[in-house]
Amino acid sequence: MTSGRFQRIMFAIYVAMFFAYLLGPLVVMAISAFNTPEYPQVWPLEGFTTDWFGRLFADNDLMEGFRTSLWIGLLVVCISVPIGLAGAIVMTQIATTARSFYYLVVVSPVLTPGVIIGISTVVFWREFTLVTGTRFLYDGIILTVLGQSSFISAYCMLIVLARLQRFDRSQEEAALDLGASYPQVFLHILLPYLKPALFSAAVLAFLSSFENYNTTTFAILSDKSLTTVLAGRVRQGSTPSISALATLIVGVTIVAAITYEVLKRRDDRRARERQVAAIRAEEAELSLATAQ
Amino acid sequence: MRSIYVIMLLPLVLIAAFWLIARLEGPAASTRPGFFQRNGIGIGLYLIIAVGFWAIFIIILPMVYMVDLSFRPKLPPAQIGGPKDVYTLENYRFFLFGSTTSTANWNWIHINAFFSTIAASIVITLLNFVICYPLAYHMAQSAKLESLRVLLLLLIIPYWVNDILRAFALRVLLSTGGVINQALAGLGLTSEPIDFLAANVGLYTGLSYAYLLLMIFPLYNAIESLDKNQIEAARDLGAPWWHIHTFIVMPHAKPGIASGCTLVFMLCTGAVATPMVLGGPSTLWFTPIVYDRFYELFNWPQGAAYAFLLLMACVLFVLTVLRLTGLKLGEIAR
């Protein structure tokens, strides 16, 4: 039994080291965000301050970048979720011989480095807007939205597809037998069924867009997004303001993750209660049937 | 003629090909309702326009145009589409020889950067697999539900912190005045600070750190679907632990392993933020060189050629992974 115990201790050490590696740098950075020296410093703790957070909100470029990133994120959600939905539905309807080729095309952006997506978007739209006389479309925000949409739509499609594959076709057939038209089936049966998937796709799309740097840095042209401003600041040198920003993001993530967890637990409990109730009802029905 | 006009014809060919395939499959499909009958005109149009715009204008045309541009010379705007706008290999020649005309000397800086980027990415990918596999296995097979939730929560929190900020966090740790150097000096182990960033330790740690979670989630998902009874059965039959992993868990988790490795490799070779923040003065990474072609030298055809080389490296990696594991693309990209 001692070897089992030894193994367990070794494993505990490994898990501790893993999380120290994963979370340690973030904790250290968070500490430096509250320390007074000009350079992000953890030790010695010279004094507690929240000035660095204040400077963050006074930094106009950063705030402008933040607003631009919000806009880009919202536009990406508006484009990627409908495209992802359409992509998933087409996947279930397309002729089987064409399906693998179609899959290759629409999934390829997920496996392409973001820089290359950014580059190809910029070079193509520069030429396209030039020859079609639509120069006003050659704009950093529009290009960034287009570039990010290529792979974020694919994420959305994969999420929708995962749920679509569990869709019970007989529901659709029942509706059709009862005289519903195909568009009605789409609007009143398929869409409500896909709603949770569409919601998670929207959240994921926004978050992926908001934190994207690789595609954005090429496609943003002369505009500024939060990540490109941030990259510029980091390149100029380290200041605790950057630590403060990261700490804010980590804080927001923790709150969001815990809220999600709590909501999910509540949902799970409800689902379990409903299941138990359903089983009881079934048993009651059965006992009635046998009694008769 | 400007090449974009030719390229714009490509979607027409593609649509024709799809239409033809649908036609050829006609007899089998004739019992099913047609596309517009099936979806109604409005929704049918929405599906076609959304998917068509995405596939053609967002995915295919930009990529094809980029490849075309990489085989063109750099010309002033007035001469584009003129007699001098011909296909050429000069951008690729520049990558190899550092000159568009002469082939006397090799362009070692760029060649070195390209291959060391790929080699380092492969090493980091394998390293991340080794780091993540035990935890993924534990989470998927033996963790209790309560502790699993805590573990997942702890993993998700750093997941949404941006690349740049993660790299910055490591810089706070690893710089010459950083925490680790302070600790080493405090313990009396070093008399002078070690420059981790110049020695590329910072860069490699940063890349491994940034993409750790992209390895662990696919692994976890793949191992989770393995039936616990299979492992129990093997153990009962006396299989040693490494047998269980190499012959039962890993073959089952192959799609997850392949997709984790592909993602980590792809993100490493294409990383821009991490080399920028954690690279030392002598660090050679390929993406900053590509970036400079565009926004320092404004030589877009050359930049396109460099980007295409990087893309080819990734395609080659994916193909190798598919060949080694015997999987299909659909099993990796999920």
UniProtKB/TrEMBL annotation, chain A:
Record GO biological process: transmembrane transport
Listed InterPro entries: Bact_Polyamine_Transport, MetI-like, MetI-like_sf
Topology term for the membrane: Multi-pass membrane protein
One Pfam family, short name: BPD_transp_1
SUPFAM superfamilies: MetI-like
Compartments in which it is found: Cell membrane
Main location: membrane
Protein name: ABC transmembrane type-1 domain-containing protein
UniProtKB/TrEMBL annotation, chain B:
Transmembrane portions of the chain: 6-22, 43-67, 113-136, 148-169, 201-220, 257-278, 304-324
Alphabetical GO biological process terms: transmembrane transport
GO CC terms in record: plasma membrane
Protein's cellular compartments: Cell membrane
This protein's UniProt keywords: Cell membrane, Membrane, Transmembrane, Transmembrane helix, Transport
This protein's record includes keyword Signal: no
Pfam families per the UniProt record, alphabetical: BPD_transp_1 (PF00528)
Keyword Membrane: yes
All copies of domain ABC transmembrane type-1, residue ranges: 114-321
Membrane topology, record value: Multi-pass membrane protein
Predominant location category: membrane
SUPFAM superfamilies per UniProt: MetI-like
Family listed: Belongs to the binding-protein-dependent transport system permease family. CysTW subfamily.
Name under which the protein is recorded: Spermidine/putrescine ABC transporter permease
Species per Swiss-Prot/TrEMBL record: Ancylobacter defluvii
